[in-house]
Protein: Indole-3-glycerol phosphate synthase
Organism: Blautia liquoris
Amino acid sequence: MILDEIAEKTRIRISEKKKQVPLSEICRVAQKRTAVEKGANGGFTFPFEKAIGSGGISFICEVKKASPSKGVISEDFSYLQIAKEYENAGADALSVLTEPYYFQGNDRYLQEIAKEARIPILRKDFTVDPYMIYEAKLMGASAVLLICALLSDEELKNDIKISHGLGLSALVEAHDEKEVYRAIACGARIVGVNNRDLNTFQVDLSTSVRLRSLVPKSVLFVSESGIANPSDIKKLKENKTNAVLIGETMMRSQDKKSLIKDLREV
Ligand SMILES: O=P(O)(O)OC[C@@H](O)[C@@H](O)c1c[nH]c2ccccc12
């Protein structure tokens, strides 16, 4: 199973990082940063939730070089320019892959993009350890991805709590009924339904349509993966989807501004 393989590689990657900067240290620095921000803002602001929950359908555009299902999507991959184009095209938020082996992502891409971006950023990685949430905070992300299939209920609850405690949003990813229920029971304020099965790579937009009704109004609903054209957006809009997460279609577009405009106008 590819998902288990990626998770295993991620565990090894994080154990190496812990040798450089231990958990206690990264936790301390991240909490210090949070306290400073909290003080300056008079409390938490949760910019990612604000950006995708402000009415209508919001666009989270993904900066993605490659994927296990599609191989290399962007050869030259000028990530800073891509992020800027998304922002200028009217994206509500960015998603930046940091997983290095299967998606050719890099922590540095997110850090550099965060220095320039004026819209919130989701750290897209396979969170298997709270360490990665503290890292996301220090990289300048506003949200992390938590994949239900990789976490027990206890871990999910704890990771959501840590994220919220740092002023980060958690996009909790589900792929079936059971996972949607788990996400909500564990305290998710944002549920993302991945239309792509991470083990078979099959994409089916009806997964989002089917699972939408299980998510209460008080929780934001994101449809992820395989979104390609206005008719997809139309279906999701009719289904009261708060936001879409689009990678490949955006990455391959030569004119991101007209693409987002066309998708918004449905
Ligand atoms: O490129 P697409 O099909 O538009 O998909 C984007 C995004 O949803 C996808 O990259 C994704 C969704 N969930 C993930 C979990 C891990 C890695 C990647 C993902």
Q: What stands out?
A: The chain has a mean pLDDT of 97.
